[in-house]
Amino acid sequence: MSNTDGDNDGQKSKGVFPTLVANGEWLYLKGEYAKAIESFTEALALKPDDKNCFVGRSKCYLMMGQTENALRDAETSLKMDKTFFKGLYQKAEVLYYMAEFEFALVFYHRGQKLRPQIQEFRLGIQKAQEAIENSLGTPSSVKLELKGDLSFFKKDEERVQPIAAIQNLKEKKWQTPKNEKTTKQLLGEFYSDKKYLENVMKDKELVKGRTKRGERLQDVVETCLTYLDTCTEFWNQENPVCTQDRNRKLTQQRCSKPPHRPPSERAEFLLKSLDDIDAELTFGNAEGSLKKAEEVMMIVQKWSEQEFPNKKEVLGSLHCCIGNALVDLGDMDQALEHHQKDLELAKQCKLPEAKSRALDNIGRVYAQIGEYERAIEFWEKKIPSVRGGLEKTWLFHEIGWCYLELNRHREARDYGIRSVAAADEIADDKWQINANVLVAQSELKLGNFESCVFHFEKALTHAKLQEDDSAMNAIQKALDDAKQYLPQ
Question: What is the pTM of this model?
Fold first, then answer.
């Protein structure tokens, strides 16, 4: 091949690459994640070291529930530049949705130190801290339920997370154990792990190393130790060792062979089971999640409501788990049946949060199988129970997106405007992009070209604030197309 041919190929690659990236970002905004992945992959074949492409593809994988692929791409973007803030944020997001809240918190903090003006890192820190706090919980506040997941249809990396009052863990007034003996009793089998990690920290050369995923070993160990200390403090506060010893002796005296599981043991069994079921689904093992949920349901069904008053509430959560696993396995009819049973039990028990969860999931299934009218029907029933700006903006966006798919452009536009208002209220740039794109698309179909251009320009402004080059390119392309319809 002549040098001239090589130069021409190079020029062609330079022209094709930004087009592929812009196309991938546009497909991502439209929710066509598989096609977007193909576009980003083609772009990476031309520029294998483009870190923005890896982040873009990671976002798509995350939306499709392929968390391992999403994490791998996010980490690859950081191999090239450890201070790449988009890669840090994406890795934190993936870890968060893998329920690795402590590790996610580390990367949210790293990103905030580098880019304190970007509010996503601050919000990430808050939601990770809230998740850690909720995972610890208190005996009186633990609720055996799983939230609905609209990740198949969301146009952003924020998953469905109802807003709640966020409290920083540092504000807690813990009752710290006084001595090593107390710590050993509280941690039980985890005490040896704590001592091992403390010894690792003493090896200054070892902690300078890195894990296969690229984290500094020192950061990982410090995070684990902090978590164990938090657990120790929490368990000491809720059930001091002296009380544990007294309760154990009383139990040994009164019931040498208990005929049934005591309530506390049942609660512990259920909490662990629900965690296991959710973990299996999170890591892509839908069959394992389904099998475990069905096994636990058979056990719970044998319990009497007199012995376990929360039986119906737990069964509702299990129906939710089974429904979510069946969605991943592609059995939508059976999934709907289980989510409907979850809804019925929530109504019987008068549990508004469980009802909201079931409505989320039913709407999600209907949307996935293309029955947009039914999805709208159930999602609109959820509106009265919506709390907080983030929950409003994604719900209005999803309903508007369904109306757009039905070519009911006025309704799509109206819900898009409501989503914009909610996103503006919480000053969330990402959702301001998504909501404005939805309004712009609707206005384009309605022939309101000036309004269409206005909302594309607003979306572009927020993309620039995010310093998201790929989104900027995609929106700019759509904006240029829309401007052609304006009167000259």
Answer: 0.49
